[in-house]
Amino acid sequence: MKLTLKIWRQKNASDKGSFVTYPIDGISTDMSFLEMMDVLNEELAVKGEDPVHFDHDCREGICGMCSLYINGHPHGPKQTTTCQLHMRSFSDGDTITIEPWRAAAFPVVKDLVVDRGSFDRIIQAGGYVSVNTGGVPDANEIPIPKRIADEAFDSATCIGCGACVAACKNASAMLFTSAKISQLAMLPQGQVERMSRAEKMVAQMDEEGFGACTNTGACEAECPKGISLTNIARMNREYFSASMKSENV
Questions:
Q1: Which of the residues 4, 68, 101, 109 has the least number of beta carbons within 10 Å of its own beta carbon?
Q2: Tens digits of residue pLDDT in 44-86
Q3: What's the sign of the alpha-carbon dihedral 229, 231, 232, 233?
Q4: Closest to 114 (Cα-Cα) out of 208, 10, 212, 203
């Protein structure tokens, strides 16, 4: 395959940045998108040019590091992670535009790499169980209905890639935050800190500068793990209940 790549190049957070066009040839349809980027970087290195900086880690669709905005979609044309996107999804002669996530809360570090530390700080605000839950019980000692267990698991599949933020016209982090609140709110281990967790995580999300949710639904449509909007509804209920309790104390 012969392709034309229009890639966002930016030296650092303060640099203005611009698109640079790179022709590339000899790309196999069996390559992953990141392998295609590796080929480009090898060519740039041979020429003595600065390679394109992009995030990646597991390359198995698990870690969420491979966050690229491809042809107007987070992670590209398929509802999957960039590392699981293959070049057979494109055609010979295509022009592919590649950008970083665009959100004030995700400042560009260099080229296609953004700082997603804001997500880490939201988790640090309350996305964990800190109480002493004792030893590990037998599997059937704490009965959890299968429907609840399945919903909690579905929420926990969020990999924190930030596609929801990139897809949202308001750069909202509501889907990410709600998934992290939901996965604990539905399980017995998360009940003790349930109220404070919702208040603290929502407050940190707002402090990071993410936008508000206006129920467009682009986040769910673009999420590579299919995280549902029902998590946002649950988070709103959790936050409302916590706020009412705080007012009555």
A1: 4
A2: 999 999 999 999 999 999 999 999 999 999 999 999 999 999 9
A3: positive
A4: 10
Q: Which alpha helices (DSSP H) does the chain contain, by range? A: 33-46, 117-126, 146-156, 163-167, 174-185, 194-207, 218-222, 230-248
Whole-model pTM over 0.90 = yes
* Cα–Cα distance, 5 to 23 (Å, whole number): 6
The pLDDT confidence band at residue 24, using thresholds 50, 70 and 90, is very high
Nearest Cα residue to 187 out of 218, 149, 244: 149
106: tokens are 């995700």
Structure tokens at 180: 């992290």
What is the rounded CA–CA span in Å between residue 58 and residue 60?
5
d(CA 26, CA 40): 11
pLDDT of 138 strictly over 80? no
CB 20 within 8 A of CB 7: yes
Cβ distance 119 to 105 under 8 Å?
no
